[in-house]
Specification:
CATH architecture of the largest domain: 3-Layer(aba) Sandwich
Number of helices: 13
CATH class of the largest domain: Alpha Beta
Number of strands: 14
Distance between the termini: 27 Å
Structural class: alpha/beta
Largest sheet: 7 strands, mixed
Number of domains: 2
Strand order of the largest sheet: 1-9-8-5-4-2-3
Length: 377
């Protein structure tokens, strides 16, 4: 059995090596490294896949969030509501722009933003909601959009972990994650379900004027070279990364199916076990399983990680410290105990390896040893 990885990027690459190598060499031979044909082709192909009017590639997922907030004209002091249980980038951008991050709790079963908590947090200074489609499935977008419409708020979807997931509306229609709100943002960090071989990101919107402004801001605030109509940034997806992403986009649905098969195996192995809580699969969203995250009910998490490490099984904790207890984000408004679900999750979650190259022998090795540990603790 080969070495177990949280994400096996080498194994994935080996299956598409000829396509990737040719695409990269073609870009090098063309010398069209920035905003070349591959970037434009990837943009068009991702627009078609997502069924969205505008995809604006950029340098990374954090830039994507920042550029959208700049394009929406949010001003210092404006309040932006987001989930406490998430990676720091979501709140980081809000703080960088001197906006006011307003943190709310999440649901304990699917880890996404609590809609009732969002509604309670809305004030006259609230301008936007940033739901995070955590670990591979969508937040309750239909309810959030109704709430946003009621209070005239923007909705910026952070879909870095759920690209390709379908949201199922109550009327039976579907839309891709990231295409429902005012705008959606994603990352193409290598470990993402759709990842490049460096940094990359993109913004999605169906709003023509907003799309035009986002594209301008991402390019130094210019739509015509040397004429700067907005204060902008320099945030580009390079042509080599775009060429790689074009290839991987063709496999994205198969990658999601492979991840779901891994999750199915884990679910069966841990079904009904009182010491572990398996991830909920929401009725309103497909799950593309960027992570497979258990909640431990009793066993010591660090001891489990150490035990699994002795069996050459990696495990990760996403995320060990809630945002309101991070040194950089401490605020007099919040104290320990204010976000019971987030704090409980941060103390008890553990993520197992999940990727597109896992075989049954590997999965049996992992689940056998997880079950061995929890049986004795």
């Amino acid at each position: 059995m080969k070495k177990i990885q949280m994400v096996d990027l080498i194994g994935q690459y080996e299956k598409i090596q000829q396509e990737v190598d040719k695409a990269v060499l073609d870009v090098i031979r063309s010398a069209a490294f920035i905003n070349g044909p591959e970037v434009k082709a990837f943009q068009s192909e991702l627009e078609a896949y997502l069924n969205v009017k505008h995809v604006i590639p950029c340098a990374n997922g954090t830039d994507a969030l920042q550029i959208v907030m700049m394009a929406l004209g949010l001003q210092p002091g404006d309040e932006v509501i987001t989930a406490n249980f998430t990676y720091v980038a979501t709140a980081e951008v809000i703080a960088l722009l001197q906006l006011k991050p307003v943190l709310v709790d999440v649901y304990k079963d699917d880890f996404t933003i609590d809609v009732a908590a969002v509604e309670k947090a809305i004030t006259p200074r609230t301008k936007a909601i940033v739901p995070v489609h955590l670990f591979g499935q969508c937040a309750k977008m239909e309810e959030l959009m109704q709430l946003a419409q009621k209070h005239n708020l923007y909705v910026i979807e952070d879909t870095a972990q759920a690209i390709g997931a379908d949201y199922h509306f109550s009327d039976g229609t579907k839309q891709k994650a990231g295409t429902i709100g005012t705008a959606g943002c994603t990352s193409f960090f290598p470990s993402k379900n759709l990842g490049c071989y460096g940094d990359g990101g993109a913004i999605f919107t169906n709003d023509d004027e907003l799309g035009k402004k986002i594209r301008m801001i991402a390019n130094h605030g210019q739509s015509v070279q040397y004429y700067h109509d907005e204060i902008g940034v320099n945030s580009r997806l390079d042509s080599i990364q775009a060429a790689i992403l074009r290839i991987k986009l063709r496999h994205l649905d198969n990658y999601a199916a492979a991840r779901r098969a891994v999750a199915d195996y884990y679910d069966r192995a841990f079904a009904g076990h009182p010491k572990v809580i398996t991830p909920k699969r929401a009725t309103w969203s497909d799950h593309v399983f960027h992570q497979y995250t258990l909640v431990l009910n009793g066993p010591d998490r660090q001891q489990m990680r150490e035990f699994l490490a002795t069996k050459d099984i990696p495990a990760m904790i996403y995320y060990p410290v809630p945002l309101h207890l991070q040194k950089a984000y401490r605020d007099d408004r919040y104290k320990a105990g204010d976000f019971p679900v987030t704090e409980w999750l941060c103390a008890n979650v553990i993520s197992l390896p999940i990727h597109t190259e896992m075989d049954e022998a590997t999965l049996k090795h992992i689940t056998d040893h997880v079950l061995e540990f929890i049986a004795n603790h």
